[in-house]
């Protein structure tokens, strides 16, 4: 176990949404993880797995009907119980966040310059001119060409890939310790995706920024993350260092996700492997393991009792939530 | 062997969209109450006067300027000529509602025809037709309406026509937009691809999808028309004596506030209640046919 | 965008022309001219009038005379008030209408935008409910009802020591403030109800947008988010609403001036129509259509100015 204190320690984070007509929805159920300085964590799952809500909860960005419980310790303070004023000192300054769709995530009515300088003016008390200078430098760092001229433009004048770089630059202005990236490449072309991931990797290596990357794409995780947490229906099902997870996944869902990745070595006429069925809608309470209806290895026990998240047998630093022992899950890769 | 298997989940029972919409409407309490209120008002206006011992025209000199009272069914009181206000209000309501409904019908027909044609034909025709609509929007219709009432006289049908002449613009725009989007939707292509002919496409796919939009806009148009008629009547340019409408009664009442305020308050109350009911029914219909989370 | 504006302006001309022509024909072709019913004039007077107003010439010539004069800014002489030109009458009535409508619109915008913003930011608060209720009232209580109600409360129920109403029930006097309060209040209430409701809806929608989430993630305080990030996009629907508010202020003027007996443009319209004062009515139609077109244009320009996506 790491001897240094973790940068961010999340324990039993749960998010519940109240609904006007109907039972409340438990979008995230008792998720725990820790992030060390300079490390990257990937949170993987399908839509509705609760991965986005987890990080939204960390920065107080949940919708009004969302309630969070648990603990998220950063610098010895619990992010989840902070009021807005205290959170505002951390958001955008010590912890930055970038979102999925750069077109709608940037304000179309303000110039890039305004949207960047306001962060520095607020958190670093720089003058407008100094802030602009710093912003231009940061844009150059993320390889926006002709940054000094471009900074006066509006978001709609940039391409999708460039907009995402601008967002990253904006999030990095105050040199945060942690960068949270919520599906940063989903809305982009494949080639641009690779560039963005490369950029994030550089940032992590050169500046030591810790990164939490949310994605549904295992390929992206493989390229960037030190540790991986797999979520399903609001719960963590497996957690392990990336190399270990890819080499020897121990949860049926993880195995399914990895199998679904098409490989160059597959035969042409081999059908694409999918995980049949659909993930449960958020809020559909399940008895037993949430994955059981789609799991080949499911036993009676799986349908009645929820498996707890426990250390994986024979592995250090790994957790899994499954009733079946590791040996029983055939390795099908 | 793949590590996953499939379990089939039961599909929910299916219902026709109209039934779902009706069900949603009924569940919306505010809209349902408003609908009941509207029905009550309409019944009162069309049937009510027959149930009263009073009528709208005869003066009862023994009961001049009575405040609302229970004697003789003078529930709204009487005016300075001894005429029962309740019956006058209900009779006036008939006129206001008739203008509203007929006007909506006429302007609705014009609007649907115009908009559907423009939307379906597209291209140059569409551009010209919508340009005309744009031009008409800029015209100060109240002026023209006033002008037409003074020039052509104030017969009932003329009032309806004058008001309808300017009330079809919104409907035309909306219908055109809907037709345009329907025309290019995938399910039309799909229907064509499996060989459904044009007429069936129009009747079975386009018209049902237009109905929703038309109904919603009709409910928005009705209060507008009732209001325009009331304004014209208020200015003395609406329907002529001996016909009366809410606008006329309100104008009359506004002159006599010092002595007989109920002459203003009662017809005003009826008008406002009707407008309220129609707008909530309209909201309810809109929600029922196209629900969005508010 | 310059080209776009010019194109729109150009379309205004045929619109105005079409309206003028239609009204001209309506007025001249229907029976009952301004000189028919009222007085019995001697033949000599009639001849004079005919010559002065070109009434003996064929219709199309009269029409052309009219257009020609129009291009010179001459709206002609009133048929009814023979000593006055239409322009004079309009100039006399305009200050009254502007002094009421022109004053109430800016007030209503300021109050409406503020209330709508507060209602959106503090959902389910007192102000939020008040805005919704006010919006409903505005929908349901028309100006010609609200006006007399205001008169009833402030001029009849509330009385000063010597038995007069606290505020006058109508009239204009010399334009003193006490004659303006109620009409301005009426127009302001109606407009605030509408503007606040639209602003509230628009602001709620903007605040739930993605770029607001980004702004929050940057640690910006709530006030900055609302004023710097949300205000401009939220104002767009209000701007286009203002265009239609200004245009419908003509109807509003007609009703308000009728309720409060104000000698403004609205009264001029009604009286002109009743008296078959051709030139007056035509002049007013020309003016109001031109104003309507102008406002539409201003709204388009404001849109383009506010939204950087609609630019050159």
Automatic annotation (TrEMBL), chain C:
The gene is oppB. InterPro entries: MetI-like, MetI-like_sf. PROSITE patterns: ABC_TM1 (PS50928), PROKAR_LIPOPROTEIN (PS51257). The chain crosses the membrane at residues 9-27, 98-121, 133-157, 177-196, 238-260, 280-306. It is found in: Cell membrane. Belongs to the binding-protein-dependent transport system permease family. Keywords: Cell membrane, Membrane, Transmembrane, Transmembrane helix, Transport. Residues 94-299 form the ABC transmembrane type-1 domain. CDD domains: TM_PBP2. It holds the Pfam family BPD_transp_1. This is Peptide ABC transporter permease. It comes from Paraburkholderia terrae. It is a multi-pass membrane protein. It comes from the Bacteria. Gene3D superfamilies: MetI-like.
